[in-house]
Design a protein that fits this description.
Strand order of the largest sheet of chain C: 4-5-10-6-7
Bound molecules: flavin-adenine dinucleotide
Mean pLDDT of chain B: 96
Oligomer: heterotrimer
CATH architecture of the largest domain in chain C: 2-Layer Sandwich
Structural class of chain B: alpha+beta
CATH architecture of the largest domain in chain B: 2-Layer Sandwich
Low-confidence stretches of chain C: none
Chain lengths: ~150, ~775, ~290
């Protein structure tokens, strides 16, 4: 499944980048994040309760940030499994300052979903992914604002 | 209570209980101390199992035991494959995966609990760690050098290569003026979707060392043998019962790992266990159907005479062999020339492993593929030479006088009159008028299409010499002291209605009401031997065994009555509840003869008391039913939607024993065949994830999507069995798919369309329309 | 059907129902006809810990006329709407839409309220209530409120309802003189839901120009939506075929269009345009008939 899109955050690029790299902010912004712990190798172990409306599942997984070019881009690698099956994804996140104090975050990646969600959620998956990503960026936007940029 | 004659339209004996919900299916079996099973299944298409941790599941309240593949190793036999193909590679197929999983849905562990709910909940607590391995989904990619291997112990993904060749190819290829038409045809993967999913109850009694299994199966006797081998319980200590079975369509002509596991668990725990498949499991882990790629090369003379046919078949077998997996595509090769006299044939069939569920018999089993190929070929020829598809068919039909007809494929067709069925369907549909209407509508920018299919199929399976494990069938008839008749059949009807047909055969033989006849089947403890129900064999082979047993009993009864009446046995007939001389001057009531035979006071010398006869009927050949179907469709030029406007089917299944049952089989068959043409497709993504995992996504056809079917029959009896019946269980499915595709392609012919692969989803057609209008 | 275990509650009153829901928060779910919720529970996509059954609140199942409105209780089944003589006369778009839902069994159990509250991206009712500019009324411990249909559908399966709010009524304004409505749907071959479903309401002026157009579209995006661009394109224009075509071309504008095994986003957008045109054509035809009646 291809996931791509962009989101505009009302904050300078550096501020957005900082939030994206900050575990505490991430934990708050990630939808349904119950735990986010840094590992020794720089990756995170996350525990999430994610979904759309009544469709929810508990997942544990690993989040890795790779090839970071501050404050422009990085690769994000996610792998997790839970009640709804498993998910492996990799994507590129790019930040561009599109105006004074506005940053456009573009993301594009590929996710492989297996198990329950893959076999019964086919028709909803794309829209659900979009919604969850949207929630994340909205929360991230709030994070940046509340931290005063 | 009139005597029912063969050929009468009689309502099904089984319907009152089924319609009122009073039948008993596997899930209705409740035994004291019953435990429930649930399976943990692989979410990966291919992975190494690193570890299976069952501690949490085992500790859950209500869970009695959890077993993994490793626990069962050496204790339960492999899932069996009965197909005998030269050089066939048969990979190990454990009931629960041991160190590798090879398709999504493969069982890896089983939870045993005191309720189905507890078992299902605990499955989620079985922790399996997987190491994903490379996945191969596309069978062509699986054939490429260096492709990931489904079974690392095998050199490649080829399970077998089979060739079939006949005729003088050298001469044909050198023939001047011969034209060669090439086309690739794809026969997509389907799900059988029986209304009742699979289910099994296994109950082992240690005292008697007796294993009783209730299974939703089409083959109780074969299952009994195989479960005995798998479980280690001696076969004469095993009993398999197929209670009411809610459809199978071939998917229950099998032996499944879950059945082996159920037997093992019951034996290990000394308690009865039950497993009922969910619909999701059914779509994932019950065999799939079809899935072939067919590359055809047609050699045709300028006048439309097809002189040769070559076909390369790539059959996607999935990850493992189920009972008949590799045998199915070989049936395609066998029937590839269809109803036509084609002297030269070449077929190469390659069975290929992929990381998907196994394919196996699905209604038609190999023959729908053959029919699709040859019927598309006839239309391709017609289009290429600009001939009417009717003329091309007529030109290539053998004459009715040519039968029995030996073909280059190695089979001998028993009897047919293809011209007659085709003419009858053309008349029913008003073919000439339809073509005129088509022309008129085309001028208005509307796309009406007319599609034909003149199929022949292979039924009444079959002579034992050509079957994997026996093709005979058992029948016995016993007359009780009250005059009621008990029939035992080794077949295992599961919705087809043979309790009615068999009762008709018996009642009309004895001249008694058919209500007096009861047919028992599907219980190896009651019926001594049998093969089962598949390959449209139940009436033609199983019914014949019963018919012959009736004949034997009648002979005996005639002797007894003749002795009493002082006439010759040959002078007596069985009519209206009497055994009588032709005019009825001398007569005994049926019941009187029965009493004579059973009370045995004055039997003629040498006659044994009692009235019970049995017969094991061995057919000398298959039968070859045929028919002509015509579909009328209209394609919406805006959206590509296909509307099926009319459907005409003329089928010849030999002698018709009950027209209502024939109609029923045809209607149901048509729906499944049309479903394949228009909607159905079981889809895996490139990672081997099944995307059509629910009936929200897999498009099973529904009644409201169809027009009324105009059906009719012709009757060309067969000499293969004394009933003259050929079989009709699969005809509708086999005949209809190409009729629909031919109709849609015909509709789009003005746009230069030659072929579109199934299913004919509106988007595909819309794209064709769009690119045509752009051109 | 083996869902995860849950507790089942039967409130006697509406107040009790929403109080229970407030108490359970995200762990609770109302149960109406069960034909959306239970399939999800069966697949274990949803696993609410508490089910609060609304079906005993029988006075939430009604269809009645009140002044300029018809009012439909949230627990009214699709079948009752389909077969209502009152609605066939006063608001035929509703029975016309109901007829297209699922099959007889689904229509006998499923409720309009459950359908709207669930807000499946391919459900039929959302298109109809959008086009009819209905008001959706809900009750919670905080009182009763009404929401315009256009504000009700928030995102994929997400509505403006709070988790303790019971949808109680769909209040539909009756169509005026010279107004016609129609629903055009392409059924998904597997689920029967809408690949695309378009409800259109058109009011014509005496001179044949479009006075008002309201178009609700379902099946196309993550949620049902009002096709404002289509409506604007028609406003004040004569209802000619050319104008209908041109307006329908805006049907999927600005929408994140769904894709599945049966229709890519591109094809689905095309379907949205074709079915919008068809719904508009039918609505105009009926509006003309209504004007001359
Ligand atoms: C085979 C099948 C085919 C179908 N085809 C179609 C179709 O073609 N078109 C279509 O539109 N639908 C279709 N449906 C869905 C059907 O219409 C459902 O009945 C409907 O979507 C939900 O209504 P319900 O009463 O069954 O709600 P439920 O399933 O009981 O509830 C659905 C959701 O709404 C909430 N809810 C229910 N009532 C209220 C209320 N009064 N206030 C607040 N929240 C509430 C529940 O908590 C739950 O989250 C189909 C369903 C099935 C099973």
């Amino acid at each position: 499944m291809k996931i791509e899109g962009s989101y505009t955050v009302q904050a300078p690029r550096d501020a957005v980048w900082q939030r994206l790299m900050d575990p505490a902010s991430l934990a708050r912004a990630l939808p349904g994040c119950e735990k986010l712990e840094p590992n020794a190798d720089g990756s995170y172990t996350a525990q999430l309760n994610v979904g759309v409306a009544a469709i929810r599942g508990n997942y544990t997984g690993r989040i890795e940030i790779l090839d970071a070019v501050r404050p422009e881009q990085y690769r994000l690698k996610i792998s997790g499994k839970g009640t709804g099956g498993f998910l492996n994804g990799e994507g590129l996140i790019m930040l561009a300052e599109t105006g004074p104090g506005t940053t456009e975050v573009r993301y594009s990646g590929d996710a492989q979903v297996g198990g329950l969600i893959a076999s019964v959620g086919q028709r909803l998956m794309q829209a659900a992914a979009r919604q969850i990503v949207g929630e994340f960026f909205q929360a991230l936007g709030r994070e940046v604002q509340s931290q005063g940029g | 209570m009139a005597t029912a004659l063969l050929g009468e339209r009689i309502k099904r004996k089984e319907d009152p209980r089924l319609i009122q919900g009073r039948g008993h299916y596997v899930d209705d079996i409740v035994l004291p101390g019953l435990l429930h099973l649930a399976f943990a299944r692989s979410p990966h298409a291919h992975a190494r199992i690193k570890s299976v941790d069952v501690t949490a599941a085992q500790a859950a309240p209500g869970v009695v035991a959890v077993y993994t593949g490793a626990d069962l190793q050496g204790k339960v036999g492999m899932v069996p494959c009965a197909a005998g193909i030269e050089g066939l590679k048969v990979p190990e197929h454990p009931c629960l995966a041991v160190d590798e999983v090879r398709y999504v849905g493969e069982p890896v562990a089983v939870v045993v609990a005191n309720s189905a709910y507890t078992a299902r909940d605990a499955v989620e607590q079985v922790e399996v760690e997987y190491d994903p391995l490379p996945v191969v989904v596309d069978p062509e990619k699986a054939l490429a050098p260096g492709a990931p291997r489904v079974h690392s112990k095998l050199a490649d993904n080829v399970a077998f290569v089979a060739k079939l060749e006949g005729g003088d190819w050298k001469a044909l290829e050198a023939e001047p003026g011969i034209k060669v038409i090439r086309q690739r045809l794809i026969n997509q993967r389907l799900a059988p979707v029986a209304m009742e999913t699979r289910g099994v109850v296994a109950s082992y009694s240690p005292g008697e060392d007796l294993l009783t299994v209730w299974s939703s199966t089409q083959i109780p006797h074969i299952l009994k043998t195989q479960l005995a081998l798998m479980s280690g319980v001696e076969e004469n200590h095993c009993r398999v019962i197929a209670p009411e079975v809610g459809g199978g369509f071939g998917s229950k002509l099998n032996v499944y790992g879950e059945e082996g596991v159920a037997c093992y668990v019951s034996k290990a725990l000394g308690r009865p266990v039950k497993w009922i498949e969910s619909r999701r499991e059914n779509l994932q882990a019950t065999i799939h159907g079809r899935d072939q790629i067919n590359d055809v090369e047609v050699y045709v003379r300028p006048d439309g005479k097809v002189a040769g046919l070559k076909c390369w078949i790539i059959a996607d077998l999935g990850a493992y062999h189920q009972l008949l997996t590799p045998a199915i595509p070989t049936l395609t090769a066998l029937m590839i020339v269809g109803a036509y006299h084609i002297p030269c044939v070449f077929v190469e069939t390659k069975g290929v492993f992929t990381n998907k569920m196994a394919t196996d018999a699905y209604r038609g089993a190999g023959r729908p593929e053959a029919t699709y190929i040859i019927e598309r070929v006839m239309d391709l020829v017609a289009a290429e030479l600009n001939l009417d598809p009717v003329d091309v068919r007529m030109k290539n039909f053998p004459s009715p006088k040519d039968f029995p007809l030996a073909l280059p494929t190695g089979v001998t067709y028993d009897s047919a009159n293809y011209q007659r069925t085709l003419k009858k369907v053309l008349k029913a549909a008003g073919y000439t008028k339809l073509r005129k209407e088509q022309e008129r509508l085309r001028k208005k920018g509307r796309y009406l299409g007319i599609g034909l299919s003149t199929y022949v199929e292979i039924c009444a399976m079959g002579p034992s010499s050509r079957m994997p494990a026996g093709g005979w069938e058992f029948g016995s008839v016993r007359i009780e002291p009250t005059g009621k008749v008990t029939v035992l059949s080794g077949t295992s009807p599961h919705g087809q209605g043979e309790e009615t047909t068999f009762a008709q055969i018996v009642a009309s033989g004895f001249g008694i009401p058919y209500e007096d006849v009861t047919v028992l089947h599907g219980d190896t403890g009651v019926v001594p031997m049998g093969i089962g129900t598949f390959g449209s064999r139940t009436t033609a082979v199983g019914g014949t065994a019963i018919y012959l047993a009736v004949e034997r009993l009648k002979k005996k009864m005639a002797r007894i009555a003749a002795h009493k009446l002082g006439v010759k046995p040959g002078e007596l007939e069985f009519k209206d509840g009497k055994v009588q001389t032709a005019g009825g001057e001398k007569a005994m009531r049926f019941l009187e003869v029965v009493a004579e035979a059973i009370f045995a006071k004055q039997l003629p010398p040498g006659v044994e008391p009692g009235l019970v006869e049995q017969c094991v009927f061995e057919p000398a050949n298959f039968t070859f039913p045929f028919g002509a179907h015509l579909a009328v469709v209209e394609v919406d030029p805006d959206t590509g939607e296909v509307r099926l406007r009319n459907y005409y089917a003329v089928d010849d299944c030999g002698r018709v024993l009950n027209p209502m049952l024939v109609d029923g089989q045809i209607h149901g068959g048509l729906v499944q065949g049309i479903g394949q043409a228009l909607w159905e497709e079981h889809v895996y993504d490139e990672n081997g994830q099944l995307l059509t995992g629910t009936l929200m996504d897999y498009a099973v056809p529904r009644a409201h999507q169809f027009p009324w079917f105009e059906t009719a029959t012709t009757e060309t009896p067969t000499r293969v069995n004394p009933l003259g019946a050929k079989g009709v269980g699969e005809a509708g499915t086999i005949g209809s798919t190409p009729a629909i595709v031919n109709a849609v392609v015909d509709a789009l012919r003005p746009l230069g369309v030659r072929h579109i692969d199934m299913p004919l989803k509106p988007e595909k057609i819309w794209r064709v329309l769009r690119s045509a209008s752009a051109a | 059907m083996i869902p995860q275990s849950f507790e089942y509650h039967v409130p006697r009153t509406l107040e009790e129902a929403s109080r229970l829901a407030a108490q359970f928060g995200a762990d609770g779910k109302f149960l109406a006809g069960g034909h959306s919720l239970i399939p999800m529970m069966k697949l274990r996509l949803a696993a609410p810990k508490h089910l609060i059954d609304l079906t005993c609140l029988r006075d939430l199942a009604y269809i009645r006329e009140e002044g300029e409105h018809v009012r439909i209780g949230a627990l009214t089944t699709h079948f009752r709407i389909e077969s209502s003589a009152l609605l066939k006369e006063k608001c035929p778009l509703l029975p016309e839409t109901a007829r297209e839902i699922g099959d007889v069994q689904v229509r006998n159990r499923g409720t309009i309220g459950g359908n709207l509250a669930h807000s499946d991206p391919a459900a039929d009712w959302p298109a109809a209530v959008l086009a009819l500019e209905a008001e959706l009324r809900a009750v919670s411990p905080r009182g009763e409120r009404g929401m315009a249909a256009k504000d009700f559908f928030v995102d994929l399966m997400t509505t403006a309802l709070a988790s303790d709010e019971v949808l109680v009524e769909i209040k539909v304004p009756q169509l005026g003189h010279g107004t016609g409505a129609a629903y055009a749907k392409l059924h998904h071959p597997a689920s029967g839901y809408a690949m695309v479903g378009v409800a259109a309401v058109i009011a014509l002026r005496d001179n044949g120009a479009v006075e008002r157009a309201a178009v609700g579209i379902t099946g196309v995006g993550p949620k049902a939506y009002r096709a404002f661009a289509v409506e604007t394109a028609l406003h004040g224009k004569p209802a000619t075929q050319a104008h209908l075509n041109a307006a329908a071309a805006h049907a999927a504008e600005g929408v994140d269009v769904n894709a599945d095994l049966y229709a890519s986003a591109e094809y689905r957008s095309h379907l949205a345009r074709v079915y919008t045109r068809r719904a508009l054509e039918a609505a105009v035809k009926r509006a003309r008939a209504a004007a001359t009646a």
